[in-house]
Design brief:
Chain lengths: ~160, ~160, ~160, ~160
């Protein structure tokens, strides 16, 4: 399960374009995509990208009733916890990719580092990259395009294998 | 998505037998099963039953790392919230079936009634049935076998349709 | 810290009267009152009762901004989790008293039993009492008036002492 | 209620010294201190500082049983949610002060910006300050000493007044 975190309403077009391509690539690897599930911005784009390639899409929603959900979700988890669900997003991901940046996304990157999940920053500016590398060391990688992000995710997943029972 | 709630470690053999059969029937309807995800008792049994019929199984786990997860889960949500995740289970379900009874299961039935989710009590004793009918009125049904439970779930889902946009 | 759980909007006058008296008695013991914090029903009444006797009142609120809070709270915890906060209420209490009954209150009693907190049912009908005694055994006591509830709480707190480090 | 967020185990001596002084100053203003409640690092220091000046200290704990709690807490909220409780910390604060930096602290600053709580960074390095100013604009202030932080908090609280009913 690859968690893709990114802005909803406030997402810039570039982040959405990257997210859609990323979703497609993740699906082609046979991995599931997990995100915040809202029908906006990066969350919507990554689900659509994955869905088009037949991938499984999981959304961990802020609301209790799911009216905010993307139509491209296969599994919708309704938490009723608002941003409190951000920690569930990262715990449920084997690798976390941040695509774009916002306060919510930054909280997810920080929680991922805290929970010792590997993090890939896709298209982050130098300031964000430097800040999170300070916090997370070599569990944080910075990539410029979705292909590199998927390669980095593959590396993280491979390196984890031997440690698992 | 049909949520099946029931005891883990403390489950009696009868509840597990009902849960396994219920999981199989839910999968045959083409519905997904959502449960607490732990590799024990009713949660394990319902996932195995659904899995054998090719159904999708979703577990909302109490732990942060997922070591307690059933091997029959397709999607594992790691909440790190202990019993705090019980409310997520019921919010994420369109119908809640309680199979067997325990303190955790009782909390999920009560939270389901609070969140206005329809509830089906499968194999509940008269005392539990009476208590929850007092609380939930006609959104609570009591059935003795899994076939009846699936029929009741179908009724609830059908009656909901016209109200949906 | 004594957690007092009970209905908000739907509370009957009798439960509110008991809650107000209970709040006053808890404050006189020098204990803090913890509740769901909403300005309605049992939650409002127990805070007012405690406040009048100079007791500390703590509310664990469902909302994120606190607009639903009772004016009689000294400490307001804003969770933004809706009924997901019910588990926090019981975990944060050393003894849980349920005053009146509703779906939300029933979930808190069940979660308290699950978390091995002692429970006192104040003014519960025979059906509810029987159901929860089945689940919780001798960690569940049933009392008819607030004076007895406080006595039962004192017993529970005393019996806990030797087990603590 | 002033929320003071900062590292636990990994806190540097300098951050703890600042936190202790900050706690004392907050208490002298008559405000309550809210923090993560753990008996380590900044959380312990700010509670001790506040306690010495007779201030009220509130801890929102990660664990379910409270064994990790600082002895200087007046009110201990046991969430059983691990880092999931970070969002509760910021929602329950009227102003959030970050003292020192770590992954957990960064998540709280980001969640505070998301929830539109004013944020004061005390003793942050230039990199962290720049990153969070990008995200939060003028709701984020950077100060070098506790006296300035309290002054900034007073400003934020004052500017909020007229907007409240």
């Amino acid at each position: 399960v690859i968690g893709v975190m990114g802005p909803g309403e406030g997402a810039v077009a570039d982040a959405c374009r990257l997210a859609r391509r990323l979703g497609a690539l993740i699906a082609r690897e046979g991995w599931a995509v997990l995100c915040g599930g809202v029908a906006a911005g990066v969350m919507e784009a990554v689900c659509q990208g994955a869905r088009e390639q037949g991938g499984l899409t999981i959304g961990v929603l802020p609301g209790a009733e799911g009216s905010e959900a993307s139509a491209a979700l296969d599994v919708a988890i309704r938490t009723g916890m608002g941003s409190g669900r951000n920690n569930i997003n990262v715990l449920s991901s084997d690798v976390v990719v941040a695509c774009g940046m916002s306060a919510g996304t930054a909280s997810e990157v920080a929680l991922a580092i805290k929970a010792r999940r590997p993090v890939i920053l896709l298209g982050a500016d130098e300031r964000a990259a430097a800040f999170f590398r300070d916090l997370g060391g070599d569990r944080v990688r910075v990539t410029a395009d979705p292909e590199d992000a998927v390669r980095a995710a593959r590396d993280f997943l491979k390196s984890r294998r031997p440690a698992d029972p």
